[in-house]
Sequence to fold (521 residues):
Amino acid sequence: MHTIDYIILITYFLGVVILAGFFSRSQKSLKDFLMGGGTIPWWAAAVAGIATVTSAISYIGAVGLGYSTDFSFLQYRLALPAAIFVICVVILPFFFKLRVYSIYEYLEKRFSLAVRLVGSGLFILFKSCFLAIGIYAPAIIISVLTGLDIVLIVLITGVLTTVYTLMGGMKAVIWTDVPQLLIMLGGIFVVIIVAVNGIDGGFAEVLALGKEHGKFNYFNFSLSFTDTYTVWSGIIGGTFLIISQFGTDQAEMQRFLTVDSLNKSRYAFIASVLVATLLGFLIFFEGATLFAFYQQRGRTDIETNQVFIRFVIDELPVGFRGFLISALFAAAMSTISSVLNSLTTVYLSDFYNRFRDKEASVSLARAVTLAIGLFSTGLACLGGYLGNILEAATSIINFFGGALVGVFLLGMLSRRAGPKGALTGFMAGFLTVLSVASFTGVSYMWYSAIGGSLTFLVGLLTSMLLGEKPGTGQLKLVFSWNAVVRRGKKASEPDAGPSGLSRMTEDSSMAAGGNISESKS
Fold:
């Protein structure tokens, strides 16, 4: 790279470190470090949610899939209406009104401590694997750029990002996500514009070549469970996937709980998921544009994870390379920092605070962040065995996320479910997905649906057979249409207050013990 490119890259890193250092001075309590003090604007929380999903995994993996295949991967976005409804109407109100640090605390309040620990433990396991991919993704870029060993780059990237994350806590995570997302967007458009200008026939030729080679194919109505991407796996499996990605995932949900009202939390979530969807299509189109660019040059054999960085290095003029590399690091760092913060939250809330007489300190939170970051960096050294990194990341979410969705919905939708049924269903769902993945050719896009539905059904049937009867306080943590109607009426009354809380939710919070720091039962 040219000196100018290095100057741009160094300027980006310095800006991030300075911003993190600025917020490090405001971390006076665990709530400040983990939840941003509960004063984050809804639009900033939405941007953070978008930046967390639109990672370097998407930047590299989605471009690679758009280049090598078609748009069929994005069929799971057909599930958005159903997923948005479930999260906004059923899931989000419980988490917001209970004012918990970790969303898995709900599982203890509704079922038992054992269910909570299993749920949070599974989250830590699968997010550590996902985080490893997030660390590995930008290392691909630097390896191609410098020729250095990729393991060495993984170690440097993971450690540096971990240090930046532990400095500023949640406020640094969110407020660095805002400029990072803008840099990412700029990078996408730079690549598309430069590539189109280098194609004989311009934009029209991109569309013509894309149509000729099936790059814009979207719908696949096959009924086969072994076809990787179909409309049916998109709608059914996608519903569970999106719920697991946004509704029962601490890394995403934690951003939406940093605002000061339920409605703002909903605004942040809906804006986040809709913009992330548009970005997904834009990045796949970027991949199709690069296909057209290299098709005219007779070079369509470039490896899927290498095509984006190959274009950046070979085709972009001085200055733009540094900007694009900064954009990729922005995508990576936003995801790594978000996931690190959420893993720290879950560990401290569900394992440390739960069994201690006092709340963890900010210093301990930083130490835990460092330990988790180093562990995931070690896992990232194995990233070369994962294939396309976007498919690998989505596969991990589907593999682990379904059982979590199932147990949350079991608690929120069934008045018959008890702790023994929940644990049995949880294990049944997870082990079934493990068996399906190991011994069948069923597409990974079905894993979440299989795990989630079996967890719910087995949990409900087991609870009924055992005659489990949830207590009064637990039943107040079950979704009720009547409560929704009452909440709507109360919100329209002049004295209802800014958030229009229903008596059902207030009672639930009181019965549950309110804040995490008060829950020691």
User: Anything to note?
Assistant: Confidence is low (pLDDT under 50) at residues 492-521. The chain has 21 helices and no strands. The two ends are 58 Å apart (CA to CA). The longest helix spans residues 150-197.
